[in-house]
């Protein structure tokens, strides 16, 4: 289909222009002559014309209604579960941090501790609670979707 330089040759250029309806009168005469003189080019023209006709008339099939119902249910379920996990995580972090803070409150009430140490204790408590919630959430998710959970080690 290409000449030695890797470019589209004149014959192919005429075929493409004819398929796209962009041939001028002089080029149409040249293409008609080439098609009558060259059976291989004529076969290529027939093949490309059929391909264009088939692709021009091609349409996507509409999916069945059941598929759409399942699709939107799936999207809604994923959104709902994602939002639920966010809310559960936030609630667990806040509640866990509050509980840990109550335990550490006596330590924080000590006036001999510098403010930096008090803030560090607070950051440590919140960070540990967040890490615990994150690890627990991940373990629950993995245990539900792990394809190897039935395999003994």
SSE layout and pairing:
Blueprint: H1 10-19, H2 25-37, H3 39-56, H4 65-108, H5 115-145
Helix pairs in contact: 1-2, 2-3, 4-5
Task: Walk me through the structure.
This protein is an all-alpha fold and 153 residues long. It folds into 2 domains: 10-56, no CATH class; 65-145, no CATH class. The chain contains 5 helices and no strands. The protein has helices at 10-19, 25-37, 39-56, 65-108, 115-145. The chain is elongated.
Annotation keywords:
mainly alpha, disordered N terminus, 76% helix, 5 helices, elongated, 153 residues
Number of domains: 2
Uncertain parts: 2-6
Compute the separation of the termini in Å.
59 Å
The mean pLDDT is: 81
Structural class: mainly alpha
In which range does the helix fraction lie?
over 70%
Helix and strand succession? HHHHH
Shape, principal axes of CA atoms: elongated
Number of helices: 5
